[in-house]
Amino acid sequence: MTAQFLFGGAGLVLFALGIWSFLVHEPLLRKLIALNIMGSGVFHLLIATAERGDLPPDPVPHALVLTGIVVAVSATALALALGRRLEEEDPDG
């Protein structure tokens, strides 16, 4: 088993797990975690596509993953802050 298939398979499993969790769970925090798991699956798939056989790996997918990680962390922080504000303003909570 090559690293390409390992990363690709892990990416598919993580993405499927994230979709399942997003659809099944009700709380916003769990949905946010599910979206992050789906993002990790996409990052694994991008790394799997960077492999080019005997040639060195393609650097563009690696740069996309690095940029995606930074964006995902920022978007997660924003979503957590918005979720906290929603819970503070909820009269039933």
If you had to describe this structure to a student in words, what would you say it looks like?
- There is one protein chain.
- With 93 residues, the chain is mainly α.
- It has one domain (3-89): Helix Hairpins, CATH 1.10.287.3510.
- 81% of the residues lie in helices and 0% in strands.
- The protein is built from three helices and no strands.
- It has helices at 3-24, 28-49, 59-89.
- The longest helix has 31 residues, at 59-89.
- It is elongated and about 60 Å long.
Itemize the secondary structure elements and their pairings.
Elements: H1 3-24, H2 28-49, H3 59-89
Helix pairs in contact: 1-2, 2-3
Euclidean distance between termini CA atoms: 50 Å
Structural class: mainly alpha
Radius of gyration: 17 Å
- Low-pLDDT parts are none
Order of helices and strands: HHH
| CATH architect. name | Orthogonal Bundle
- Major sheet attributes: none
